[in-house]
Amino acid sequence: MKTDFEEKTYESYFNSELSQKSKFYFPIGQVQEGLLGFDCSAYTHNRALWKLLGNPFFIFNHFQGCELSDFVQIIENNLENYINNFPKMKCNLLFQYKKPEYIIRAPTRSRNKNEWNYWKKPYFRYDIYLKQQKLLMKIYNNFSNEVFVTYASPALSNMHELVQAHLKKEIISNSNFSKVPDLEGHHRNTYAKAGNVSIACSEPSYIKNIDLIETLNQLEQDNHFNNNKSNKEFIIDFGKLLESLVLEDSFYGDMFHSLNEKYNEYRNYDLLYYHLVLQNFKHLTGIQWLVKV
User: Fold this and answer.
1) Are 102 and 1 in contact (CB under 8 A)?
2) How far apart are CA 213 and CA 169, in angstroms?
3) What is the C-alpha separation between 140 and 197, in angstroms, rounded?
4) pLDDT category of residue 141 using cuts at 50, 70 and 90
5) 83 or 216, which is more confident?
6) Which of 106, 251, 264, 275 is the most exposed place for a label (fewest CB within 10 A)?
7) 104: how many CB neighbours lie within 10 A of its CB?
8) Could you tell me the CA-to-CA distances from 198 to 132, 146, 205 in Å, in that order?
9) Contact status, residue 99 vs residue 10, Cβ threshold 8 Å
10) How far apart are the first and last CA of the chain?
11) Buried b (16+ CB within 10 A) or exposed e, 70-89
């Protein structure tokens, strides 16, 4: 049966809890959309932005806003000041969130019976889309130690369970995490509960799940992430490499190019431009970008 909550709700609860459990930078959600809150083709009415820029918006009852191009340098400067106040950025993280189905009885279709025959009890299942997996593997193979890429899916069957887990700050502990390489060659991933093994299909393959926070902390302790760049360089370099990889992709490339094209006039403002590019990446692919600090 279909779980009765939206993937976006799970994503929101997940990100909120993650930000409380460790130090992360959420460039798209909290800076780009929350603080800046603009579209280059429209006037901005975002009061938080005008307050940031020192504009006395409260004097004007019918303030009409102005073009982004009129204050883009100010935004670039404020973004740079903002990220410079963060601790040193160590690693880019990419999460592919998945809303699962909850299978409560043996499927009638023969090709799905092997899943039930293994679990022999209710279990969760989500599809692995070839185009998404291909892009994720390309990113994984090209970024080496600079990126951590994983699927995240809740072991929760309904909205009530999701909300209760959120209130108890147990979203992450009730999630299933599978590394992207472990799902290569499969079209589905199944799991019975958080913390248990996954079985990727069609040919059953056992996958050992990970404890997300413990894994990230251990990698940091082992100096797995070697970064000698400033925070500004770290974001810009990642944006450049990611942009080039996605533009080469046979499925996403043309669409990504079209989305980025409307920001061409801001290419001289690297930090702002690559925040916009990474926002397009998230909206196009559904992959969440954040940074471990």
Assistant:
1) yes
2) 14
3) 22
4) very high
5) 83
6) 264
7) 10
8) 19, 26, 8
9) yes
10) 39
11) ebbeebbebbbebbeeeeeb
Tokens at 82, concatenated? 């903002």
Residue 284 near residue 58, CB atoms below 8 Å? no
3-class SS of residue 269: coil
In Å, what is the CA distance from 98 to each residue of 186, 188, 238?
Answer: 15, 11, 24
Distance CA 42, CA 58 (A): 21
Q: Which of 285, 115, 99, 286 is nearest to 176 (CA)?
A: 99
Beta strands in the chain (DSSP E): 24-25, 91-97, 101-103, 123-127, 147-154, 175-179, 188-191, 198-201, 205-207, 287-292
* Sequence-separated (6 or more) residues with CB below 8 Å from residue 169: 17, 20
How far apart CA 91 and CA 234 sit, in angstroms, is: 9
Burial tier of 232 (Cβ tally within 10 Å: 0-12, 13-18, 19+):
middle
Contact assessment for residue 197 and residue 44, using Cβ atoms and an 8 Å cutoff: no
Residue-wise pLDDT for 142-160, tens only, equals 986 678 899 999 999 999 9
Token pair for residue 266? 């801001």
Assign 66 a pLDDT band (cuts: 50, 70, 90). low
Would you say 291 and 266 are in contact if contact means Cβ atoms under 8 Å apart? no
Q: Which range is least confidently modeled, 103-107, 127-131, 231-235, 240-244?
A: 103-107
pLDDT tier for residue 74 given thresholds of 50, 70 and 90: confident
Residue 36 has pLDDT above 70, yes or no: no
Out of 67-71, 83-87, 195-199, 224-228, pick the least confident: 67-71
